[in-house]
Specification:
This protein is an alpha/beta fold and 366 residues long. It contains 12 helices and 11 strands. It has helices at 13-16, 20-33, 40-53, 64-74, 91-99, 144-154, 206-216, 237-247, 250-268, 291-300, 330-338, 350-364; strands at 57-61, 82-86, 103-107, 129-135, 157-161, 169-170, 173-174, 181-185, 199-203, 284-287, 339-342. A hairpin with a 2-residue loop joins β6 and β7. The relative contact order is 0.17. Bound molecules: pyridoxal-5'-phosphate (PLP).
Length: 366
C-alpha cells in the first residue's frame, strides 16, 4: 500500500482547475457589465436551472436556508402550523421551520436510506400538520411516491430540500421539481456549488414563484413599493454567472461521484449508493461502532473525513427550549455517533479509493 497520501475531504482541483478559464471569463464579464444585482446573469441562470430541473419557475436566492424559509412563507406556513421533518436532517431544515414560527415535528429516518421513514409519518399527522419537508440527504431522494400519497391523503404540501441532491431524479423526474416548492443550496461544497453563498427556489406554481420573487427582495416587485415584509436574499450576478458555467458540468461530475461510490461499495461490501440508481452521491457515509477511532486512524494516514452530523438537531443547544433529551430519537442519535463521511468528489482516483478502503479494512480486521 502506498503510504503518506494526503486526501482531503473535499478538493476543488478536479472541479475548478479544468474550467478555470471559463470561470475567470464569466467573472470578468460580470465585472465589466457594471451591474451586480439582479441583472442578466441571474435571469439566465434561473432559466437554465429551471429547465435543468424540469421546473417551470426558478427564483435565485442568497442561500439554501433562505430558500427554505421563503418556501415555507410562500405556503403561508406560520405559528400554529406543524411541519414534519427528519430527525437527522441538517440544522438548516429545522431552523427554517423555527424561523417562520411553525412547530417542528421530527420523524426518525430509515437507517437504510438515512431519509425520513415513510412508515413513521402517518402517526404524527394532526389537524395542524401543513407540510412535509422532504430532505434528500447525501444525494439520495426520499421515497417521493409514498410522500405524495400521504400529502394527497391529508392535503399537505411537500417542500423539497434539494441542497444535497442537485441532478438526482425519481421516476425520471428531477429532484426539486416534484413537491409544491423546493429550495436548493449552492454552498461551495455541494455537487453544484457557487464560489460563495447562493441558492434557488423552484416550483411549477406561478403564484408561489411570484411570492418568492417578492419575498427575496424586500417584499417588493416595484422598487420602493413594499407589499409584505420581505428579506434581502438575492442571487448576485457574480454567483449566477459562475453557476451557469458550472451547471453544464453537473451531470458529468455526478457520474464521477457515482463511479467513486461504486468503487467504495465494491471494496467495502457496502450497498448504499446502489439503493437508487439516480443517487448523486453528495456524501458517501459509512457506519462504524468505533467511528471516532476509525476517523483518527484515517486521519493519521492522511485521509480527512467528516461527520454529517455529529449532534442531531434535537440535542443542539439552539433547541434546548423544545426539551428533547437523549434517547428521544435513537436512530438519529445512533447515526450521529456512528456515521463517517468518506472523501467523494470528481478528481479522486481509483487508487485513492483503494488506499482509503485498505485503511478501513485494516482497521476493521483488528
Ligand atoms: C440538507 C441541507 N439543507 C439546507 C442547507 C442550507 O444551505 P445554505 O448553507 O446554503 O444555507 C444545507 C447546506 O448546508 C443542507 O445540506
Amino acid at each position: 500500500m502506498m503510504k503518506n497520501r494526503k486526501i482531503p475531504y473535499l478538493s476543488f482541483d478536479g472541479i475548478h482547475d479544468e474550467i478555470e478559464e471559463e470561470l475567470i471569463r464569466a467573472a470578468s464579464d460580470v465585472i465589466k457589465s457594471k451591474w451586480y444585482i439582479h441583472g442578466k446573469s441571474c435571469l439566465q441562470f434561473e432559466k437554465e436551472y429551471g429547465s435543468y430541473s424540469g421546473s417551470d419557475y426558478a427564483v435565485g436566492v442568497n442561500s439554501g436556508l433562505d430558500g427554505l424559509i421563503i418556501s415555507l412563507q410562500c405556503l403561508n406556513i406560520r405559528k400554529g402550523d406543524e411541519v414534519l421533518v427528519a430527525s437527522n436532517a441538517y440544522i438548516a431544515c429545522w431552523n427554517a421551520i423555527a424561523r417562520v414560527g411553525a412547530t417542528i415535528v421530527p420523524i426518525e429516518p430509515s437507517s437504510r436510506t438515512y431519509n425520513i421513514d415513510i412508515n413513521k409519518i402517518e402517526e404524527r399527522i394532526t389537524s395542524k400538520t401543513k407540510a412535509i419537508m422532504a430532505v434528500h440527504l447525501y444525494g439520495q431522494m426520499c421515497d417521493m411516491d409514498a410522500l405524495i400519497n400521504l400529502a394527497k391523503k391529508y392535503q399537505l404540501s411537500i417542500i423539497e430540500d434539494n441542497a444535497q441532491s442537485q441532478g438526482a431524479s425519481y421516476n425520471h423526474q428531477k429532484s426539486s421539481s416534484i413537491g409544491q416548492i423546493s429550495s436548493t443550496s449552492f454552498y461551495p461544497g455541494k455537487n453544484l456549488g457557487a464560489l460563495g453563498d447562493a441558492g434557488i427556489i423552484t416550483t411549477n406554481n406561478s403564484e408561489l414563484a411570484e411570492k418568492a420573487k417578492k419575498l427575496r427582495n424586500y417584499g417588493s416587485s416595484v422598487k420602493y413599493v413594499n407589499e409584505v415584509i420581505g428579506h434581502n436574499s438575492r442571487l448576485d450576478e457574480m454567483q449566477a454567472a459562475l453557476l451557469s458555467v458550472k451547471l453544464k458540468y453537473l451531470d458529468q461530475w455526478n457520474a464521477q461521484r457515482r463511479e467513486i461510490a461504486q468503487w467504495y461499495n465494491e471494496r467495502l461490501g457496502h450497498e448504499w449508493a446502489a439503493i437508487h440508481p439516480s443517487n448523486v452521491c453528495h456524501v458517501y457515509c459509512i457506519q462504524s461502532e468505533a467511528r471516532n477511532e476509525l476517523q483518527k486512524h484515517l486521519n493519521g494516514h492522511g485521509v480527512q473525513t467528516l461527520i454529517h452530523y455529529p449532534i442531531p438537531p434535537h440535542l443542539q443547544q439552539a433547541y434546548e427550549h423544545l426539551n428533547y433529551k437523549k434517547g428521544d430519537f435513537p436512530i438519529a442519535e445512533r447515526l450521529a455517533e456512528q456515521s463517517l463521511s468518506l472523501p467523494i468528489y470528481p478528481g479522486l482516483s481509483e487508487s485513492d479509493i483503494d488506499y482509503i478502503c485498505d485503511l478501513i479494512l485494516e482497521f476493521n480486521s483488528k
